[in-house]
TrEMBL record:
Family named by the database record: Belongs to the PlsY family.
Keyword Mitochondrion recorded: no
Native source species: Chitinophaga niabensis
Pfam family, one: G3P_acyltransf
Protein name: Glycerol-3-phosphate acyltransferase
Enzyme class: transferase
One GO biological process term: phospholipid biosynthetic process
Known catalytic reactions: an acyl phosphate + sn-glycerol 3-phosphate = a 1-acyl-sn-glycero-3-phosphate + phosphate
Major localization class: membrane
Function: Catalyzes the transfer of an acyl group from acyl-phosphate (acyl-PO(4)) to glycerol-3-phosphate (G3P) to form lysophosphatidic acid (LPA). This enzyme utilizes acyl-phosphate as fatty acyl donor, but not acyl-CoA or acyl-ACP.
Membrane association type: Multi-pass membrane protein
Subcellular localization: Cell membrane
Stretches that traverse the bilayer: 52-74, 86-109, 115-139, 146-165, 171-187
Gene label: plsY
GO cellular component: plasma membrane
Amino acid sequence: MTELLLLIGAYLIGSFATAVWVSKGVFGMDIREHGSGNAGATNTFRVLGPKAGTFVMVVDMLKGVLAVRLSYLLPIYNEPDQITQLVNLQVGLGLAAVVGHIFPIWAGFRGGKGIATLFGMVLAIQPLVALCCVGVFLMILFLTRYVSLSSIIASIAFPVLILFIFREKEVFYRIFAIAVALMVVLTHQKNIARLLTGSESKVPLFKNRKNKHDRA
């Protein structure tokens, strides 16, 4: 019963629609009516710029971290012999937050794709793996300026790291890592199509620097 309440709490945490509230509260518009129509960091980067996009991405990541941290409210799972049960609970809580982000009760069940929240979840469970994924994400973003492509490649790197580099022993977590990569690829089919046709929008990482150079 307690675990169910924590799962509901994790879902409600994930339902905080950061992109929607930022777009409406700061910019006077609904992010879901522009760009790709998703209420996530990628679309916020595309429509509202890197500052708003970075803020949304960080807050959405923190949702995943906070949801996983709910597991520590149950001391029984923190015993040394309960590691498998703890990981399973943390994965469940993280996924509940991701579902909340995708289908937020506070925003008419129309959210984003959950990538940032998913990353926050991994960061809370296995920080080193998450940091490696961040490195992959930033490298691809720096080289291509495509947030979607960076997310896809980082998500594929996740099960590779889990299975072959860190050799995670928990079977459920290994299955979860593979499922994450498949889910990200499936939810980014439109982005993949735009990448193949060259119509995917890039993040203007060097826009300000370029403008300064042009003015000089």
